[in-house]
């Protein structure tokens, strides 16, 4: 990758300046691919600029003031990019919203940020927004992508946009000015508006290029929502910086098909996606012939040993001579399901199980795990391809400092640290000290090589009634090594022992119940004492590495998964611990009855 291909933060100045410089350098190169009317379509950078000009012209006609907030509630698509760039060219501040968020939460954010314009997509979204429209009186214009009937304050995009427009010079803007307010989805409490500047996101994207090289020849598949800072900084601004092409996936449900059609070279994901792929592999192995299972685990073992050797941490082994055959029979067939061209897969947003990273790395897909927060634009640390410890979250990226504070909480300082929380100076002071160190709330240790290991979260440590402290996340990851479980949550705060809530994998549960001699479809099967005893033994096997007091005494088995739709996951696919606890409060109480 030539240095000239990458636009530096200094050359860009602002996030809109970054876009303009990309158009100037590679006007005819394909910028985006998207699916519309049953076909994949393409837009070059010059065509994207024409779309930005149309949105700029339309927004300029609303007499908005510099610094006004405008909200985007769209799935990933070129319109998201065009609206964002047009807004920033006019000195407006963008507020991304999740398309799957609850109407009352949308109303809260819109009011808190005093949003003036809200862009959404479908009639279904509008039906939800109308239920809280009276609580969003500050919005002067709702704009729908779909052709809805015009109403007071609602205009369809086709009527709102001019057919063509000339891009006007951008309003002068400093690099340290507010660019976006991003509301943390929050596993507990009301979301807080994180204020990020142009410099925050520009420097963060640029520094990440030290950990994995990206060129104009790369093709990204974008499926994490652009309202997620991880996707926005690395899957949007970084790709403009490098001139890479981005294809917008149709949906999570069609992700497998899109991976094989688009055949991306880089993937940005949260662990939940890798967990799903791994879960599907495990299910097929359980149902397949013993020889296939042996070949798979041999491929992973040999592949992992080769990786350790290539990293300079392991010796050469004669088994490496088997790799060409194992690659053909096992590894390549699985990697082809991911498109067959991935040279690096990024994982962030939550902890990735070492077992899962070991499997994918062993099969020849380098997974680079990183770590960050919305409040840090978001990346703090990342593994380098040639210095990759998959069980760690890597080393601090360029110009970012880390250190351990009280209770080994990780503190961060650097150009990626937010300006503060919108309308919340108390929360800002509680998070960033007078010297600029941001308290992540995550417990960590830092190895001699400078690699950071996240070991827990201050607020999520369970303190049992006997005073013992338990890290639930670590235990949950260990239990999830068993293919019987799709999701797990540990409870035990101020209680004498621990209990687990476990969502079962449907296929593995079917076989498990049959082995016990119970019909899996019977409601009482989930509470059968023989089932619980066998399940607890399986859980105990995976918790052998934990202290004796970290033992699960009871388990509540569930069939229905925890997801965004039923309100038990955030839009960034993190479990809402408080919501799960409240939803199953009565059942959890029963697990403690008589003790």
* Tally of contiguous helical segments: 20
What general outline do the C-alpha atoms trace? globular
Low-pLDDT segments, ≥5 res: none
**Major sheet summary line:** 9 strands, mixed
Strand content: 15-25%
State the end-to-end distance.
64 Å
- The helix content is 25-40%
Strand order of the largest sheet: 2-1-11-10-12-13-14-15-16
Number of strands: 26
Instruction: Give Rg in angstroms.
Output: 25 Å
Mean pLDDT: 93
Helix-strand makeup class: alpha/beta
Q: What attributes does this structure have?
A:
globular; 20 helices; 5-stranded parallel β-sheet; 595 residues; single chain; alpha/beta
Concise structural overview:
The protein has 595 residues and is an alpha/beta fold. It has 20 helices and 26 strands.
Summarize the structure in words.
- Helices cover 36% and strands 21% of the residues.
- The chain is α/β, with parallel strands linked by helices.
- It has a nine-stranded mixed beta sheet, sandwiched between helices. A five-stranded parallel beta sheet has the order 4-3-5-6-7, with helices on both faces.
- A hairpin with a 2-residue loop joins strand 1 and strand 2.
- The protein is globular.
Reconstruct the topology from this structure.
Layout (H helix, E strand, L loop, with lengths): L8 H4 L2 H11 L4 E7 L2 E6 H16 L8 E5 L4 H12 L3 E4 L6 H10 L2 E6 L2 H8 L10 E4 L9 E3 H4 L17 E6 L9 E5 H11 L10 E4 L6 H14 L2 E4 L6 H8 L3 E4 L1 H17 L2 H21 L12 H14 L7 E4 L6 H9 L4 E6 L6 E4 L12 E2 L4 E4 L4 E5 L6 E2 L3 H7 L6 E9 L5 E6 L4 E2 L5 E2 L1 H8 L5 E7 L6 E7 L1 H11 L12 H14 L9 E7 L18 H7 L1 H7 L4
Parallel strand pairs: 1-11, 3-4, 3-5, 5-6, 6-7, 10-11, 10-12, 12-13, 13-14, 25-26
Antiparallel strand pairs: 1-2, 8-9, 9-19, 14-15, 15-16, 17-18, 18-20, 20-21, 22-23, 24-25
Helix pairs in contact: 2-9, 3-4, 8-9, 12-13, 12-14
């Amino acid at each position: 990758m030539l240095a000239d291909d990458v636009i530096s933060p200094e050359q860009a100045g602002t996030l809109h300046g970054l876009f303009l410089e990309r158009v100037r350098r590679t006007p005819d190169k394909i910028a985006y691919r998207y699916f519309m009317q049953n076909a994949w379509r393409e837009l070059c950078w010059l065509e994207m600029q024409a779309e930005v000009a149309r949105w700029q012209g339309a927004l300029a006609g609303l007499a908005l003031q510099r610094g006004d907030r405008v909200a985007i509630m769209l799935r990933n698509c070129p319109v998201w990019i065009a609206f964002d760039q047009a807004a920033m060219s006019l000195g407006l501040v963008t507020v991304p919203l999740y398309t799957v968020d609850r109407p009352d939460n949308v109303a809260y954010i819109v009011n808190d940020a005093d949003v003036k314009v809200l862009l959404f997509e479908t009639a279904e979204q509008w039906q939800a927004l109308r239920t809280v429209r009276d609580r969003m009186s500050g919005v002067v214009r709702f704009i729908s992508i779909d052709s809805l009937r015009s109403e007071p304050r609602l205009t369809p995009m086709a009527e709102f946009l001019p057919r063509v427009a000339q891009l006007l010079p951008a309003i002068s803007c400093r690099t340290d000015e507010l660019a976006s307010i991003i509301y943390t989805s929050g596993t507990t409490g009301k979301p807080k508006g994180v204020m990020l500047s142009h410099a925050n996101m520009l420097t963060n994207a640029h520094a990440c290029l030290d950990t994995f090289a990206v060129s104009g020849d790369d093709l990204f598949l974008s499926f994490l929502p652009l309202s997620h800072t991880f996707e926005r900084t690395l899957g949007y601004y970084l790709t403009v910086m490098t001139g890479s092409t981005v294809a917008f996936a149709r949906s999570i449900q069609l992700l497998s098909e899109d991976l094989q059609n688009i055949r991306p070279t880089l993937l940005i994901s949260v662990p939940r996606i890798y967990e799903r792929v791994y879960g599907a592999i495990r299910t097929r192995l359980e149902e397949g012939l013993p020889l296939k299972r042996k070949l798979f685990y041999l491929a992973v073992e040999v592949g992992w040993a080769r990786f350790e050797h290539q990293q300079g941490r392991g010796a050469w082994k004669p088994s490496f001579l088997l790799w060409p055959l194992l690659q053909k029979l096992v590894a390549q067939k699985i990697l082809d399901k991911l498109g067959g061209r991935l040279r690096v897969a990024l994982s962030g947003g939550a902890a990735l199980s070492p077992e899962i990273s070991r499997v994918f790395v062993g099969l020849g897909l380098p997974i680079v795990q990183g770590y960050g927060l919305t409040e840090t634009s978001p990346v703090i640390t990342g593994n380098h391809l040639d210095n990759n410890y998959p069980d760690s979250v890597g080393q601090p990226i360029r110009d970012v400092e880390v250190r351990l504070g009280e209770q080994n909480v990780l503190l961060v300082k650097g150009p990626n640290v937010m300006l503060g929380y919108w309308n919340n100076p108390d929360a800002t002071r509680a998070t960033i000290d007078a010297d600029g160190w941001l308290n992540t709330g995550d417990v960590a240790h830092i190895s001699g090589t400078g690699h950071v290991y996240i070991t827990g979260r201050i607020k999520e440590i369970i303190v049992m009634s006997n005073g013992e402290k338990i890290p639930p996340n670590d235990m949950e990851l260990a239990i999830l090594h068993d293919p019987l479980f799709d999701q797990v949550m540990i409870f035990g705060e101020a209680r004498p022992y621990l209990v687990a809530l476990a969502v079962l994998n449907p296929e593995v549960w079917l076989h498990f119940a049959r082995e016990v001699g119970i019909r899996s479809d019977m409601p009482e099967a989930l509470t059968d004492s023989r089932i619980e005893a066998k399940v607890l033994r399986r859980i105990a096997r995976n918790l052998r590495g934990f202290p004796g007091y970290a033992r699960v005494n009871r388990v509540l088995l569930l069939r229905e998964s925890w997801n965004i739709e039923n309100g038990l996951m955030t839009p960034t696919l993190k479990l809402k611990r408080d919501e799960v606890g409240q939803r199953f409060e009565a059942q959890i109480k029963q697990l403690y009855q008589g003790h």
